[in-house]
Automatic annotation (TrEMBL):
InterPro entries: Cation/H_exchanger_TM, Na+/solute_symporter_sf. Residues 3-260 form the Cation/H+ exchanger transmembrane domain. It is found in: Membrane. One of its GO terms (molecular function) is antiporter activity. Pfam families: Na_H_Exchanger. Coiled coil: none annotated. It comes from marine sediment metagenome. The chain crosses the membrane at residues 6-22, 34-61, 67-91, 98-121, 141-165, 177-194, 246-264. GO terms for biological process: proton transmembrane transport. It is a multi-pass membrane protein. Keywords: Membrane, Transmembrane, Transmembrane helix. This is Cation/H+ exchanger transmembrane domain-containing protein. One of its GO terms (cellular component) is membrane.
Amino acid sequence: DKLEPFMMFALGIIGFMIGAELRGEVFRKYGRQFFIILFSQGMGAFVLAAIGGAVVAWFITGSVLESIAVGLVLGAIASATAPAATVNVLWEYKTRGALTTAVLAIVALDDALALLLYRAAATGAKALIGTGQGSVLGTTLILLGEIAGAIALGFLAGVLLYFLLKFVKADDKVLDFALASLLLVVGISMIPGIDPILPAMTLGITVANLMPRQSKATFELVKKFTPPIYISFFVLAGAHMEFGKMTSWMVVMILVYVLCRAAGKIAGA
């Protein structure tokens, strides 16, 4: 828990660097394809993982309602795409082109879709097992408010960074201001518990589109700063894996989940 701010900062850097690739001309050229693939792969993973998870849960619990609730939550989680590994592989091989652009855009936008699906699934699951409080409409409005707030936060920070960088030329100062803006966005997003990727990505998109030429040098400076952050992030993520606590049914659930999620993502895309 003490290292959570560091983990959030690492996710913020990933979102910021993804935003660097999402310039206006990219969306004008490929926007329609991006959103079609986004929804089809997200819903494909959601449906198949929900069905697979519900079937395994039924064998464990014997309760239809509890099994459906488990399936809904697992399906919503499956719709998300963890960007860290994907982005690092693309950067490591220095890939370029339409496919790379599409993957980066979908990985970034997938975060908002997963939030919507998870809130809807969690509300449905609570209703099924009798612990739900509040209306679906209220939950939806809160979620939309969080997404709008995250985008607004990233945009305002991006505009602020844009004006600051107009008066700063030294590389060390540029890096200082870029990281400070990113830390500000991540820190504020952590107060209400919002995922930092979306506001950080909006920050990157704003800077990349307001200053297309100068921002390339800014993003390169941040990119050179990131390798130790990424290594630490993956080490800490792996530290949460405790195989000794896994039961046989958990292993079965994991295998079914991974296979169903992969099938849904591939078939949908």
